[in-house]
Design goal:
The chain is of the alpha/beta class. Helices cover 28% and strands 19% of the residues. It has a 5-stranded parallel β-sheet with strand order 2-1-6-5-7, sandwiched between helices. A two-stranded antiparallel sheet has the order 3-4. A two-stranded antiparallel ribbon has the order 8-9. The radius of gyration is 21 Å and the shape is elongated.
């Protein structure tokens, strides 16, 4: 068990129009383990709880001729103002298809923060004034559009939390993940050493750590060259 006095606990507040979509991803596996260890706190806020509309309405038609409904600024501003009045937030993030690409470097940087807010987009998006005046970073998980930002928020939270010291059982595991050093991870093997005539490479059974690490690096470079040559352009 991690000593709570030595842990700089992270807090992540997620604002959502559909909080039910986040229940399972944020309450199992590594994220749940990190919460149980006291490494992080994750709070999901239902945006409908912060509207003054008697029907709990949080969206409206766009001005002009744009199709689709838009999340209103008032409930978002009301909730963010409430949260920021209680503590300082290092980043207020919006999940947007036109945001900067979320990658391992971004996850590493955010894992060093203390408090983060993630606003999930929904419908056609949010009132542009939210993005202009309340948001500090915008992230996209890919060049495609989803119904809402809940899944991107869950994915980002997972990528961040697993990097917190003590979240993983093996402290070295996260450091060896794909993209941590700008390369894809090499293939990994486990027992049995031979199955249906398919053998584990002899080098991995040699017990020679230096040679294994050299082989793994070569495999990683070759795998990256084959699958993601763009990652090698700056190397």
């Amino acid at each position: 068990m991690v000593n709570d006095q030595m842990v700089n606990k992270m807090r992540i507040d997620i604002i959502s129009a559909c909080p039910e979509l986040l229940e399972s991803p944020l309450n199992h596996s590594i994220i749940q383990r990190a919460k149980t260890k006291g490494l992080c706190e994750i709070y999901v806020h239902n945006l409908r709880d912060w509207t003054l509309d008697k029907h709990r309405k949080i969206d409206d038609y766009a001005f002009g001729f744009s199709a689709g409904m838009v999340l209103q600024i008032e409930p978002i501003d009301r909730l963010i103002t409430h949260l920021t009045s209680e503590r300082h937030y290092d980043e207020i993030i919006f999940t947007a298809p036109d945001g900067e690409r979320f990658d391992q470097k971004a996850a590493n940087q955010l894992s060093l923060k203390q408090n983060i807010i993630i606003l999930c987009g929904h419908y056609k998006g949010v009132d542009q004034r939210v993005r202009d005046h309340l948001i500090t970073r915008e992230y996209s998980i890919g060049d495609f559009v989803l119904t809402g930002g809940e899944m991107p928020a869950a994915m980002m939270t997972d990528a961040i939390v697993r990097l917190l010291p003590g979240a993983l059982g093996d402290v070295e595991s996260a450091l060896n993940d794909s993209f941590q050093d700008g390369l894809l991870e090499a293939g990994v093997y486990t027992r049995p050493a031979e199955y249906k005539g398919w053998k584990v490479p002899d080098i991995l059974l040699s017990g020679h750590q230096a040679k294994i690490e050299e082989w793994m690096y070569e495999q990683s470079v070759a795998h990256t060259q084959q699958r993601r040559p763009d990652l090698l352009e700056d190397k």
